Predict the 3D structure of the following.
Amino acid sequence: MRIIIDYDSTPRAQRKVCEAISKEYQIPVEGISGLAADDAHYAEDRKAQINEILTLDDIFVTDDYDLAQDLLDRALSILSPKGIVICSANIESLLYERFLKSKHPEKPLSQEAASRRHHDEIERFTTILLDLIAPLNTENYQ
């Protein structure tokens, strides 16, 4: 198992969480970033390089829903920095929600509300990442 991070779409705080968890659980972590200078081929080059290294044992962290949709069957799990496990059951609604937000942007949050949302996202992300990598404790179920 590895944690592979899309540095182009993952905020620094979540990258630090991945690095800390990888050290604690001795799981390798790899980052993918800025793979091509030519914008026309950037997405395809990035997807190709990720396809080369991604296995069904890996957790892939990205906020790029288009990329996530293309890689759904290539990873153990795909996790958004917002703390959402991206899967075939929710990818269409995530893409549609993104479309709606592009047509009708949300009102800016106050600094306090934005800080609270950011903290909640980091906490949710950390919890889900730990759930994905930590071995299950089945002692209570026997």
